[in-house]
Amino acid sequence: xxxxxxxxxxxxxxxxxxxxxxxxxxxxxxxxxxxxxxxxxxxxxxxxxxxxxxxxxxxxxxxxxxxxxxxxxxxxxxxxxxxxxxxxxxxxxxxxxxxxxxxxxxxxxxxxxxxxxxxxxxxxxxxxxxxxxxxxxxxxxxxxxxxxxxxxxxxxxxxxxxxxxxxxxxxxxxxxxxxxxxxxxxxxxxxxxxx
Length: 195
Prior knowledge:
- With 195 residues, the chain is of the alpha+beta class.
- The chain folds into 2 domains: 1-32, no CATH class; 35-188, Chalcone isomerase.
- 41% of the residues lie in helices and 24% in strands.
- It contains 6 helices and 6 strands, in the order H-H-E-E-E-H-H-E-E-E-H-H.
- A 6-stranded antiparallel β-sheet has the order 1-2-3-4-5-6, sandwiched between helices.
- The N and C termini lie far apart (67 Å).
- Keywords: Isomerase, Signal.
């Protein structure tokens, strides 16, 4: 005969499980939502401020969490090319670098940016820089005003694309008003005003 624990014991057990799950969620969220920028971002923006964060999902599957870091000038959506900022993506699953480059090119094309030759060149350059990623990998892109973009893998520099048109088009994927992820854009720009 199976014995069931008394009602009080079941309640206590459920309470402990719920508190443990809550603590795990808080620790997970706080580890990514920290107010202090990673060292490579702090070095680029000094001082760096977290503008906003959010997640990108595709058909319900989480692809990555994103954070937008800005400097003292903040981010001006009227003149986005004027301020240096960093976009950090923490991937939730394994993806090939080639696929990340292809998807980036497709998103730029959907925004109507770049011509056929530019899109081909940009994809080729991204394929040379973007590595394969796994769960927990961080890819950071730093916008260099009127110059280009610098990329980091888990805090280590992996390459640059010194083409101002590319940099504007690339970061437009997340920050342009016509982005295909408007909710993520809103979350990223939540605190982007000048400090």
